Amino acid sequence: MLASFPCRSLSSLSFRRILQVHAFGNHTNIRTTYSNEFTKNELLRRHNKEHSSTYFDQFRYLRHIKDAPTVPLSFGLLGLVPFAAVPLYMYSTGVYSPDLAFTQLAYSASILSYIGGIRWGRLLEESNDWKQYAYAILPSIAAWLALLVPGRWSILWALTSFQGFAFYDVTRPGYPLWFKGLRVLLTAVSSLTLFATLTLSFVLRKKEAKTKNTNRTM
Q1: What is the pLDDT of residue 22?
Q2: How far apart are alpha carbons 141 and 120 in whole angstroms?
Q3: Cβ contacts of 158-165, under 8 Å, gap ≥ 24
Q4: What are the b/e assignments for 107-141, b being 16+ CB within 10 Å?
């Protein structure tokens, strides 16, 4: 929704103004340069194009991964190893292990908490908004609940938490494009590995859990 627009004629060669756009429940100031060939609708169209609004729109950020710094890219990809190792090992042995599935779930919980920490750290010097800080602690609460939800629902809860928080973050301003692309990639792969573990729990022979907590959870 257009909140304000300069009254000066668009026939002038070029000038700068602030275009206030109501996006995703927050007013966002967008500083832009435009000339006589631009119209209000064109500016709004370009702004909306730069912000994902549907689930599949977020995958277009993948093209920006090439701009990611080497260090976060490397650590991000290495962080997928514990996710992928569990279903690959169980598939290779032909046995579903609740103990291994629980280690994957525990790792998922730690990553969910880390996701909340990223948001919290970004807000420290920029915001005093209760709503934003409240959101920053939600991933940690989701991680805690993932360890409490009984049975296979715990894996499904972790999977949907990854998807939900990733979609929220990449559709919000403030993060660099390479980070959004990396976030989409890491979320997609980790979610696929959790789904693989969930599927294997139905199709493979189940090994008896060694710990009481694992037996209750998985």
Answers
A1: 41
A2: 14
A3: 158/105, 158/108, 158/109, 158/112, 158/194, 159/191, 159/194, 159/195, 159/198, 161/112, 162/108, 162/111, 162/112, 162/187, 162/190, 162/191, 162/194, 163/187, 163/191, 165/112, 165/115, 165/138, 165/139
A4: bbbebbbebbeebbeeeeeeeeeeebeebbebbbe
Name the DSSP letter for residue 2. Answer: E
Q: How many degrees, rounded to 5, is the angle at CA 88 between CA 83 and CA 91?
A: 135
pTM recorded for the entire structure: 0.73
Question: Which amino acid does the sequence have at 82?
Answer: P
Q: Which class for 16: exposed (0-12), middle (13-18), buried (19 or more C-beta within 10 A)?
A: exposed
Q: For residue 211, is pLDDT > 80?
A: no
